[in-house]
Amino acid sequence: MPEVFTTVADLIEQVADVPAERISPDVRFETLANWTSLEALRLLAAIEDDLGVRLDLRAYLAVTVVGELVDLVAAELDGVPR
């Protein structure tokens, strides 16, 4: 899971222009500077493109903290959709 976290943090950095060092599993998306619904959709597209997974939109939009997103992505990579 550390690689998944690093990849997701890097994608958040690219999409929301937030330094990856400031991103931890317990960071709430709503507290990120520049975080809007557009950035949320851009992040979803980036995750799906870069990692080759397809996330359930409802499950993705229900995620409130970075760690939950990492778990969701890791489950998809392991072939266990939520």
Describe this structure in words.
- This protein has 82 residues and is an all-alpha fold.
- The protein has a single domain, classed as ACP-like (Non-ribosomal Peptide Synthetase Peptidyl Carrier Protein, Chain A).
- The chain is 59% helix and 0% strand.
- It has four helices and no strands.
- The protein has helices at residues 2-16, 37-51, 57-62, 66-77.
- The chain is globular, with a radius of gyration of 11 Å.
- This is Acyl carrier protein.
- InterPro entries: ACP-like_sf, PP-bd_ACP.
Q: Top keywords for this entry?
A:
single chain; 82 residues; mainly alpha; Non-ribosomal Peptide Synthetase Peptidyl Carrier Protein, Chain A; 4 helices; 59% helix; globular
Gist of the model:
The protein is mostly helical. The chain has helices at 2-16, 37-51, 57-62, 66-77. The protein has one domain (2-77): Orthogonal Bundle (Non-ribosomal Peptide Synthetase Peptidyl Carrier Protein, Chain A).
Instruction: Give the proportion of residues in helices.
Output: 55-70%
- The portion of residues forming beta strands comes to under 5%
Overall shape: it is globular
Can you count the helices?
A: 4
CATH superfamily: ACP-like
Helix and strand content put the structural class at: mainly alpha
Number of self-contained structural domains: 1
Low-confidence stretches: none
CATH class category label:
Mainly Alpha
Look at the structure and give the mean pLDDT. 92
Number of strands: 0
Organism: Micromonospora sicca
Domain Carrier: 2-77
Protein name: Acyl carrier protein
Pfam families: PP-binding (PF00550)
